[in-house]
Amino acid sequence: MSWETIDEAPRPGTPLEPASADEVVRTGIAIIGSGMGGGTMAYALKDSGAKVLLIERGHRLPAEPENSDLDEVYLKGRYKNANTWFNGRTGESFKPGVYYWVGGNTKVYGACLPRFRASDFEATQHADGVSPAWPFSYADLEPYYTRAERLFKVRGQIGEDPTEPPHSEAYPYPALDHEPEIQGLADSLRSQGLHPFRMANGLDADTPEMRALCATSDGAPNEAGLKSDAEKVAINPALEAGNTTLMTDTEVIRLIPGTDGRTIVAALAKRDDRIIRIEADKFVLAAGAVNSAALLLRSATKEHPLGLANSSGLVGRNYMVHNSTFFIGINPSKINRTLWQKTLGLNDWYEAGPTNRYPLGNLQMLGKLRASMLKMARAWAPTPILKAISDRSIDIYLTTEDLPRRSNGVSVVNGKIHVWWEPNNLEPHAELVRRVSRAVRKAGYPVIFTERMGIETNSHQCGTAVAGHDPRASVLNPDCRTHDLDNLWIVDSSFFPSSAALNPALTIAANALRVAARILGENKQEEAPSAATSPTPNR
């Protein structure tokens, strides 16, 4: 069965809306989702005077010793709390790489916070097609990248990466230095004519003692609070400012359009066994690219049979997730004592150039693979062997751009989320793996293992409600407001017209700050008295 033939949305008249709610909540701005997009939006609105409600389907993740217990995190899945999703093409179920906590995926991310390159905002020819231009430029987003770097306390260094786009200000904190093993790798890559650089990172790990406290924080929580996650740097300050309320353990299941067909009047949410009706003047959707699309599809009505904000037919389409490979290089005779590897990046083949006709992608280090992480993927392998491998390995994550395809996307079938994804642009990714393999072997790691990630590795998901100028070819306008609904914005990675080949987190945050400025500007216009009602000055 192909996606083109299935029933993508609830049939008109499906009784999804309860006859009455158990509770009605009224607010000015409702933000659905508290991850990088929603949390940053709440922060940006904290001094606005608007009454803001931040809605999260999970709750606060506890700081506890189990945060750094790798058996608990990886083998027992202590913090994985997402519902099962399904592969649309095979019907097989899988546990997605998304997390429902206050702060969303940032509670477990590796805090890698690069800017997209300037070329990522432009139409770019790739081996399998054209990566489309964004409806705004890098220069338009640059001031908000600078603000996002200050907010998330990003550590980096301008001038080391030849592809680094222009910065109006220096990074707010110096880059994290490499530990000896990674410094040796960087020196070898440089001797090969390449340009390794220190990756932009939101981790407070300047000393060996602090780095030891972060050693397991790539893919896991950080008990010491040294990671710049959305809860810590954005949501808590928003709550302290007094205008924001956080509603946890509350899953929004449906948006309700008004009779005018141009506005959302309420969101229906489940909390325990209760139904809550949340009414607001403005709604900001930030539930993640898959869940945001699914919510719009589930909100179908007789007037909107394919879901809300979907006159273009593109809600849920153009799903992208990166072509990515876990890459392990092993020196059998040398122990790698690095605590935190995620300090090194390489973009020599990120853009087309003399040695590569098309863009290939990005190299970044993984925090550090441990035996428990490998055991999750190779349950049959004896743990002592896996420990011997991880003790001697350097661990790399390779990403190549995944191009938008209408046939790749999200659907809701019998209330269940189905993800349809056929990878594309694979030959450039294979070439990236080949080139990195040669470089790593020259650096002294003769044994190479690689594994390309599948549909379940989707923390970089994007593209399910693309932004653009033409309502017929996009879901959102350039300010990320839906073309169809005047009071609904989307500020997670759904809006991405292309995936680039870098971690999306900082771009999500920067865009949320940009969209918040638009919303605040509208609020000021609405509050300004008109000429007809302004008091006449005394003369």
Structure description:
The protein has 539 residues and is an alpha/beta fold. It is 23% helix and 19% strand. It has eleven helices and 21 strands. The protein has helices at 36-44, 70-75, 138-151, 180-191, 208-213, 230-241, 289-298, 371-377, 383-391, 426-442, 505-527, and strands at residues 23-32, 52-55, 85-87, 93-94, 124-126, 129-131, 155-156, 173-174, 197-198, 244-247, 251-257, 264-271, 274-285, 323-330, 344-346, 362-365, 393-400, 409-413, 416-420, 447-452, 488-490. Strands 1, 2, 10, 11, 12, 13 and 21 form a seven-stranded mixed beta sheet that branches. Helix 1 runs parallel beside helix 6, helix 3 (138-151) crosses helix 11 and helix 8 (371-377) packs across helix 9. The longest helix has 23 residues, at 505-527. The radius of gyration is 23 Å and the shape is globular.
Q: What value does the Rg take, in angstroms?
A: 23 Å
Q: Helix share of residues?
A: 10-25%
Low-confidence stretches: 5-16, 530-539
Largest β-sheet summary: 7 strands, mixed
Which structural class should the secondary elements be placed in? alpha/beta
- What's the overall geometry? globular
As a percent range, the share of strand residues is 15-25%
What's the topology here?
Blueprint: E1 23-32, H1 36-44, E2 52-55, H2 70-75, E3 85-87, E4 93-94, E5 124-126, E6 129-131, H3 138-151, E7 155-156, E8 173-174, H4 180-191, E9 197-198, H5 208-213, H6 230-241, E10 244-247, E11 251-257, E12 264-271, E13 274-285, H7 289-298, E14 323-330, E15 344-346, E16 362-365, H8 371-377, H9 383-391, E17 393-400, E18 409-413, E19 416-420, H10 426-442, E20 447-452, E21 488-490, H11 505-527
